[in-house]
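Chain A, query sequence.
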Amino acid sequence: MSNALRLVLVGCLLSSPFTCTANDVLTFAGVKLVGTARLSPDDVARGLGLTVGQPTTRQNLVRACGHFNGLKLFDSSLCRYTTDRKEALLVIKVKDRSGTPVVFDNFFWMTRAQLLARLKQQIPLFMKELPIRCGLMNDICRALEGVALEHGIKSRVTYDARWWTERGLNVFYMEGILTPVDSLIIEGENAPTSEELQKWAQFYTKENFSAARLTWIIGFVIRDFYYTRGYLRPVVGRPTVQCLSERKGAFPVRVMVPISSGELYTLGSVSFAGLAKPEAASLYPAWKLKAGEPYDDSYTDRFVFEHILSAPWAQHSKTESDVAPYCAWVDEVSRKVILTISVETPKPYYRYAKDAKPCGGITKFQEYPPVP
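Chain A, predicted structure.
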């Protein structure tokens, strides 16, 4: 007896006191979806080829459940059908705790919103966040190839399952399409000058544009142009990409990123903990960032490396690399940073605390911003 037939018979026993067969004609009454708001019951019905009010069979419902479970769209799913006389209801319960953003790498001629809407239209079970390597990836590639062909671009669309999936993104890209960056522009109050940004961006403007890599570039912009000037709470808006005129078979783009700098934070005080008095005393004169000046996070990193990790009294091993963690408490009322650099000194040599608990001050990890 096949597994499908077993499920049909079990469904019959659980749902109806009447004798039934796999080919009994039923009227499909709809979908009851529990555990997520990212799909609607109508999405599920359309995605499984079922129409409310139309005839179906128990065997069709079992196949639909098997297909839904096999797509692995959620952390887990349980699908079954129930019957009331001649009507059948599909009941699906899911655990929806995680999802990975879908990114369109070099689709320069359509916005992200347009591509998301088109995929949703063609693939009812599509969501803008999907598990890595779920069962929709081939369908998405074929749909994107069709959209590209409508714009006169014949290119194979590939899902990058080797590189970006390890970094938390579901990336789709068109093979053979070059989109070099012509310029990178930061919009918003307290943005870096165009001269500073142009010099900084030379490395990236030599590369082909990557929407996936843009998530990293924005992180570097925040690190180098905002954390260094005392703006510790910048807010990144949705990047936009302008397609410029075609040049020798390539499609240059201009990337614009809106960033709100937020309030300015200054240094309140700095202290050193866990050091012997002579070493601690030698560090205070070397510290040049004064109280009341804009807090520069990169200065703290440089100071730790140059004045602590490189100090003769800290070099106990040529093969082991020490760490000097620091804790930056941020007073949101006064917008001052209270900085403590903690050092443990187990004998016979100095060793820096590697397991220091985070103090909840400067948040260096940010969610990936929306990408094209």
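The two ends are 50 Å apart (CA to CA). Confidence is low (pLDDT under 50) at residues 1-10, 13-19, 317-322, 345-358.
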